[in-house]
From TrEMBL:
Superkingdom of origin organism: Eukaryota
GO terms, molecular function: actin filament binding
Family matches, as SUPFAM superfamilies: AraD/HMP-PK domain-like
Recorded GO CC terms: cytoskeleton
Polar residues bias (residue ranges): 13-23
Protein name: Class II aldolase/adducin N-terminal domain-containing protein
Domain Class II aldolase/adducin N-terminal residues, every copy: 55-199
SMART domains listed in its UniProt record: Aldolase_II
Pfam family, one: Aldolase_II
Biased composition (Low complexity): 1-12
Length: 261
């Protein structure tokens, strides 16, 4: 913006001032209803719940495939088995995420031994922006030792994750965990997007010489309270699942599970 005092005077640049007035965004509890509709459906039959979770896991792999989170043989998503909580379901080795069906999934115990299904070899992987971000000094877990085959390495990563929903593994990639598969998938997709945004913001700040505008601690806590809790993760994840459910002629409804269209 420029200002002039007469027709024969030079224009003088005037920097526009940024509005610094603080406003409250309101009660974060208003983001979601506090009832059972914002939580995954409950089952009285553990075998029925197993079938439901296996299908949700299949859909999760389709979501990852749609986002390009599939690189050859690498990568996995797991869900704990409700019938035998000491084991979990995972994708088979050597099958592209977009092709995985419910019957292709295999169940392994905590040592990696297959107890239901075909052969399996577990690997980890990273997304483009997640790996780029994890090559910086922002990582939570710094001891990258290559592909994770050792039990000790897995325990160290789990200890580092603790009760958090996500971890940045140095020179490796992103890791998310959640009380529902919908939340874990949603948080992974969002974290990858946040890494992309942060890398772009850092590059912009470096190029322009202007500092980044950081979110305040109180504002960050309020935002987390509104959308970062398990119910927020589940609700966000539903929209991702609804896209791939169309392939199966299904649609997820809050609190009711999957129904035919």
């Amino acid at each position: 913006m420029t200002s002039t005092t007469s027709s024969n005077t030079a224009t003088t640049p005037v920097e526009s001032s940024r509005v610094t007035t603080q406003h409250r965004s309101g009660d974060p509890d208003l983001a979601f209803q506090t009832d059972d509709q914002i939580y995954p459906p409950k089952f009285g039959d553990k075998y029925e719940e197993r079938a439901y979770l296996k299908h949700r896991l299949t859909l999760a792999f389709r979501i990852f495939a749609n986002y390009g989170f599939s690189e050859g043989l690498a990568g996995h998503i797991t869900v704990r088995d409700p019938v035998d909580p000491e084991s979990f379901w995972v994708n088979p080795f050597g099958l592209h995420f977009s092709l995985i069906r419910d019957e292709d999934l295999i169940r392994v115990d905590h040592t990696g031994k297959v107890v239901d299904g075909g052969r399996n070899r577990r690997l980890n992987y990273g997304t483009t922006y997640g790996r780029a971000f994890c090559a910086t000094d922002h990582v939570l877990y710094t001891n990258f030792a290559g592909l994770v085959f050792a039990t000790e390495e897995g325990k160290a990563i789990a200890a580092c994750l603790g009760d958090r929903k996500a971890a940045l593994l140095g020179n490796h990639g992103l890791l998310t965990a959640g009380p529902s598969i919908e939340a874990a998938v949603a948080w992974f997709v969002l974290l990858e997007k946040l890494c992309e945004i942060q890398l772009a913001a850092d590059a912009s700040a470096a190029g322009s010489g202007k500092p980044l505008v950081k979110i305040g601690h109180e504002e960050a806590l309020s935002t987390h309270h509104a959308i970062g809790r398990p119910e927020g993760g589940y609700f966000t994840g539903l929209t991702l699942f609804q896209v791939v459910e169309k392939e199966f002629g299904e649609m997820t409804f809050l609190g009711r599970g999957v129904e035919s269209l």
